[in-house]
Amino acid sequence: MNREERLMAYLYGEMEAEEKIAFEKEIEKDPELRAELGELEETQFFLQELPDVQPEATVLSLGGVSNFNWRKWGVRLGVAASFLLLLGLTNARMEFSEGSFVIAFGKERTVEDPALATEAIAQQAADFKAALMEKELAFNQKLLAMDSLWQNQLSANSEAQQLAIAQQWQRFQARRQADFAALQTQFKEEQLPQFAALIQNMQVAQKQELQDMISGLYTDWEETRLLDLKAIESEFVHLYKNVERNHTETAAVLDDIVNGNFLN
Amino acid sequence: MKKDSHTLIIKAQAGDTRAMNKLFSVWYPRVYNWGYRYFGDKEMAAEISQQAFLLMQQKLSQLKDPASFKSWLYRTVVNLCHNETRRRKINQKAVERLTYRSKRDTAPAADYMYLRKERSKQVLDALARLPEEQRTVVIMKEYEELKFREIAEILNISENTAKSRLYYAYKAMRKFFLTQPQTKAIRYE
Question: Which of A95, B11, B70, B157 is the most exposed place for a label (fewest CB within 10 A)?
Fold first, then answer.
């Protein structure tokens, strides 16, 4: 098999075990082969984007329907239709008579004696009422029994529920304590070194801050000293000028005195 | 081949219409999908599958070994597709039709159904562009999941030729997919 054939056989899992192992080793070593296999897999994946389609209705018949005997079924349907028509025309109906169903024709039979009819109706009504009362009684008894059962169940439920809540609460408390203890241990074990590091970092940071502050103060002080020096210098210059001016003025006055100008 | 399929074929060969109909219901969807992937067209898929099953009805009794039914049916379908392509020169038309459809349906819509539909169309486009012998191998391998040995037997070629045809088909399809605007969305979604 050449390279292409081996790739396809590998892609579809149709390679002998030994050959497969050897080929996998080759793939591992050869990035180009690996890339090519990846591309083939990707193409295979794209092809799955074309799902099966449902065939549209077909007109092809393979002969199963040709066994259907239209003539025979036509006769049968005709007989059935005629029978139904006959039943309709003769006002036919189903009646239960002497233990079996019969088909009767013509009008229904009616009770001819009115007294007998009234008595029968009264008897039916009484029977119906008695049956109803019996059912009501049974129903009430059932209701009472159910109520009592329900009450018992309710109180049992209530007790069970309270017990369950208490147990749940205890479990919750116990779990909370356990969790808390676990958390403390965990905190001690895991967080302390971190805290130590944090504190150390903070100290470093504070030290740096202090140094920055001192250095800032020093700079400020330097600046202030320079300003002060300048102010002093300027004061000196001013003072010197004043002294010089006074000196000049005094000299002028002395000259005037010496030259007798003062007396003029 | 499973024993019940074997029995079904023997019954159908003996003229049992129920067995023939059962064979039809089992194999019709597969042949239909083959035709759809081959021609990219549902009408052609229906035509090919109907021709295949008419042939099956006429010639099944001549099949000597019922175990070779699957290969026999696939060979019939391959020949039908091949003849149909020759007769109608449909290959080029299918490409044109699909290309036209792709151009016409390029309105952008980011919804999932639209993407799915686009992808299906792209695969059909890619299949339609392949030479016949490569397309046949792709359908047999990827969609009918036949072994290379079976493909070789049905097409009367060597296993390595089957692998090689599939390899070059994949290469060509990948090249086509990479030119498609939706490919990126498919690859990285």
Answer: A95
